Amino acid sequence: MAEALRLRVAVPEDAARISQVLAASYGTLWQGAYPPEVLAAVLPLVSRARPELLASGRYVLALRCAARRGGGGGGRLEPGRPCDRPDPGALPG
User: Fold this and answer.
1) Which of 3, 61, 69, 78 has the most crowded CB, counting CB atoms within 10 A?
2) Residue 26 covered by a domain
3) For the chain, how many helices (H) and strands (E)?
4) What pLDDT was estimated at residue 87?
5) 30 vs 36, 38, 56, CA distance in Å?
6) pLDDT tens, 6-65?
7) How many of the other CB atoms lie within 10 Å of CB of 28?
8) Domains contained in the chain, number
9) Residue 13 — left, alpha, or beta (φ > 0 → left; ψ -120 to 50 → alpha)?
10) pLDDT of residue 1
11) Is residue 86 one of the residues assigned to a domain?
């Protein structure tokens, strides 16, 4: 049986590994959706982990066997805030 995913808050020291995951993901998922010259120009920009997100406490990593398997965050919901509590910074709608 595969080890369950664990979540943990990302830290700035995770930047290089997160950037690798972003580059591999976007590079694969966006193939065919954009012309190669557009991807070549855009991928270096969008596949860099943003330090301000990593330092915010709002970006989480999914880990399995100590390997980073995914990440996400940067939303306005604070860690630990229940989903049914309104986020005062959320946009209406």
Assistant:
1) 61
2) yes
3) 3, 3
4) 44
5) 10, 10, 27
6) 888 989 999 998 898 889 899 899 999 999 999 999 999 999 999 998 888 888 888 776
7) 8
8) 1
9) alpha
10) 57
11) no
User: What size, in residues, is the chain?
Assistant: 93
Q: Does 68 have pLDDT greater than 60? A: no
How many CB atoms lie under 10 A from the CB of residue 12?
Answer: 11
What domain range is 11 assigned to?
A: 7-73
> Higher pLDDT residue, 52 or 77?
52
Question: Exposed (0-12), middle (13-18) or buried (19+): which is 48, by Cβ within 10 Å?
Answer: middle
Q: How big, in percent rounded to 5, are the helix, strand and coil portions of the chain?
A: 35, 20, 45
Residue written as tokens 């910074």? 89
What secondary structure letter does DSSP report for 5?
A: P
| Residue 81 counted as domain residue | no
Q: Where are the beta strands (DSSP E) in the chain?
A: 6-9, 59-64, 67-73
